[in-house]
Amino acid sequence: MAILRIKEIRKMSREEREKRLNDLLAELAKLKTMIESGGSVEKPARIKEIRRTIARILTVNNEEDRRGK
Hints:
Elements: H1 6-11, H2 14-36, H3 45-67
């Protein structure tokens, strides 16, 4: 799954963002579980990218909530 830019996230509908957020949270949980069980991750930087994308989505959602959309 490609990492999203803020412009791309703002173009999405609320439902699309929620779906993408759930997908990213599931992927992050899977990667963290792999690390905790003693395994290694193919791309460790992917965790950081996922966390940042989750933060971007949550930021856009909060901005919309404050504006009353």
